[in-house]
Amino acid sequence: MQAQVEALPSQQLVSLTGLFLITEDGLSVASHVAAALQQKGATTAILNSSTLAEPEKLEQAIAQLRQLHGSVTGIIHLAPLAALELPETLAGWRQITQIHCKSLFQLLHLCAADLQQAGQQQMGCVVAASLLGGYFGRQGQGGSGLPTGGSNTGFLKTLVTEWPGVRAKAIDFDNSLSPVSIAEQIVKELLSSGRLEVGYPQGQRTIFQTVTAKLARENQPAPLTPTRDWVVLVTGGARGITAEIVNDLAQSGLKLVITGRAAEPVAETTDTAGIEDITVLRRVLLQRARTQGLTPTPIQIERQLQGLLRDRAIANNLQQFRQAGAQVEYVAVDVRNAEEFGAAINSIYTRYGRLDAVIHGAGIIEDKLIADKNFASLERVFDTKADSTFLLYRYLRPESLKLLVLFSSVAGRYGNRGQSDYAAANEVMNRFAWHMDCSWSNTRVVAINWGPWDTTGMASEEVKRQFRERGIVPIPLSAGRHFFLEELHYGRKGETEIVAGEGPWEAYEANLNSLKGIGEQGAESKKQIRANAPYLLLPSAPQLQPNGTVTLEHTFSLATDPYLQDHRLDGKPVLPAAGALEWFGEFVQSAWPEWQVSEVCQLRVLRGLVLDTEAGKKVLFKARASSHADSESLQVAAEIVDPERNIPFYRASVILRPQWSEPPTSEILPLSSGEKLQPAVAYDTYLFHGQRFQLITAIDRLNDAGIDAQVMPSRPTAWLNSQPIANWLFDPGLIDVAPQLAIVWARVQRGTTALPARFGSVKRYGQSMPNGQLRIAFRVNHFDDHSLNYDAVFIDENGYVRFHLKDIESTCNTALNRLASHL
Ligand SMILES: NC(=O)c1ccc[n+]([C@@H]2O[C@H](COP(=O)([O-])OP(=O)(O)OC[C@H]3O[C@@H](n4cnc5c(N)ncnc54)[C@H](OP(=O)(O)O)[C@@H]3O)[C@@H](O)[C@H]2O)c1
């Protein structure tokens, strides 16, 4: 990171509005900031340290202030602006991380809706300050604040990726400016554009650019060469990317102490040993449970499988290190626990009399947007890195330690959507690395900010996809290992904050906070929402409008939607209700990718969407999240309208949840008796559906109470005349079988045709789509001359419910019997 002096960019805001929450600092800057903000038109409230120290108290205070003054437009987090010594105990450190770091997360989380709303008017701002010497602890200029101030950059760089329109600044100071001058700079930065990360060493406005730096190897002796007598501690070293690196270190004689949370694995049982195929392993685990008289859910089997794979990885890695000749000890400790971790480190010194190098790889992720993340999850992710780094600082003996490597992440250095806690923790680690490197003269301390690794470790496909979109190339295994070895041999003391991996880091950082100026809204200010996965039906990504509505334009035609060919009423292609259901599902899922579409409720057919012209039918999809979202569910109201006349065709309410719902086992008994009917007869005599929709494979029983039938899922390739790039969310062909059975039942039992008018609820279960035959239990709730109300349950071959349709209403009319003759 290269410091560069840069003048303050142009001012963008001239006046402020709404409530600004300011956290109390240790230099008395807060009151000056409050006065300056009030002059600009804002209402202000200062939250004192005792309130910040207790999460419940802070939550209450925010609720009261919002009730008193209305919604929050800005947050000015000054708490880390305090000259402090690092505490002696973990309890002391945790008090400080609550006030400096976690309180900022709470403020953002609790004011998320207000700030996002303010962001849409380009008025929302979050500014956070630290006292790390103006260079964020770099260049030997530690300042008198604590590394906890680093969490500001992690939180804020993530925030701007999640809340478009909210401006954010993380500003670092030294002790050269008076409290009044610091307040002045904070307010000037808040009103101006420019980079998110800004420092004021000696009052000089400074930015930090990522620059390429070659290792000095030519004609230079390697500064550090690990020798066989070294004792090395590796946290998280039995798995993932850290284990890959240890593979290159392990050599005869080296003493390796490896830690992890899991207990050291025992030998694998014979029924699974040697099986590599995941599908076979799943089957064996299921079989094992069944022979024990258990009926496990798929998620329980998945957990067992993940545990087995983790234990295998640990066992294999430890064996490899030993085979390389290293003397290996595995210790199960939680690195957040002072007693356990402290005792493990002390025991190394007691038993070996030395500890030469530490590689700190322990870390976890639990990705969620700031608005959706809960405090307990934040603590797990944050503490795993921040507390463990503090404990290393307290327990290591720097006089004999040669090397400390902290595994940090580009998610911290540059922010990453959904990873606010992880980013904040990595940035605390980066600042701590500088603090230790400056204070420990015998030790090289380096924080490697890894980009995502390609084939191993914690980076999920989604995280890698997000990085790829930013032009960041996942690191191949061999390249990651090579990078570490080079850094180990040729890196020098003082080269403390390093980015590893290919990416346009500097260009990304330079644009991170780029906002359009006030008054530049309109077409330009529409933000394109990046869909996190390809969707079968969507022609493009939805757009977020300045008023918060998500929209998507589409023209239905036989070219774009060839499946309509096979769904004709009186000869004209018509979008079926089950088709509208899939469209709603995909549209809403792509706009809220961090949630899972779980259910579509009250889907109403208001007007037939008929292709009656060659030009096709232009429509506008619209969606808006309900303001009553909680961490368990989010409700989105969606409709498909005629854009010219603003008349709706379909309307529905889509329910999203944090995770897909586990499939329950079916309790439904088959009908006790009933007529058999050949599907071909049903399609020839009663239905009007063409080839793609003909998915009923058997009608086993039909009586007054309903129908038992069998169906196959539809094939996207046949439906769309193209190679599928994804799978359905609901499968419109499959779901359409329920209204088809309604027609068959109404014709056979009552001589009338029933067309769908409303789907009360359609709920999907399981992460993936079923791909084999399913049973359908179609049960009539009510019938009169004009309407038929029914439920339908789709059950897979293992007896799990995959779709549950409840309270489905069809309108009946004998005149509609004509539709079947149009085939
Ligand atoms: N993989 C990447 O692409 C990537 C990119 C950037 C940075 N990093 C960083 O590199 C490090 C390793 O990542 P990875 O991908 O190899 O992760 P991983 O495969 O998930 O392994 C994480 C390791 O950390 C251990 N661990 C987690 N929480 C712990 C706790 N509270 N106490 C003790 N040990 C704990 C785990 O122990 P158990 O085995 O017992 O669970 C495991 O050994 C992390 O710090 C991560 O932030 C990774």
TrEMBL record:
Location of the region described as N-terminal hotdog fold in the Swiss-Prot/TrEMBL record: 534-662
Single GO MF descriptor: fatty acid synthase activity
PANTHER family attached to this UniProt entry: FATTY ACID SYNTHASE (PTHR43775), INACTIVE PHENOLPHTHIOCEROL SYNTHESIS POLYKETIDE SYNTHASE TYPE I PKS1-RELATED (PTHR43775:SF51)
Keyword Glycoprotein: no
Domain of life: Bacteria
GO terms classed as biological process: fatty acid biosynthetic process
Alphabetical list of SMART domains matching this protein: PKS_DH, PKS_KR
Keyword field: Transferase
Any Pfam family: PKS_DH_N
Family annotation (PROSITE patterns): PKS_MFAS_DH
Positions annotated as active site in the UniProt record: 567 (proton acceptor), 736 (proton donor)
InterPro entries: KR_dom (IPR057326), NAD(P)-bd_dom_sf (IPR036291), PKS_dehydratase_sf (IPR042104), PKS_DH (IPR020807), PKS_DH_C (IPR049551), PKS_DH_N (IPR049552), PKS_KR (IPR013968), PKS_mFAS_DH (IPR049900)
Protein name: SDR family NAD(P)-dependent oxidoreductase
Residue ranges annotated for the PKS/mFAS DH domain, each copy included: 534-822
C-terminal hotdog fold: region residues: 674-822
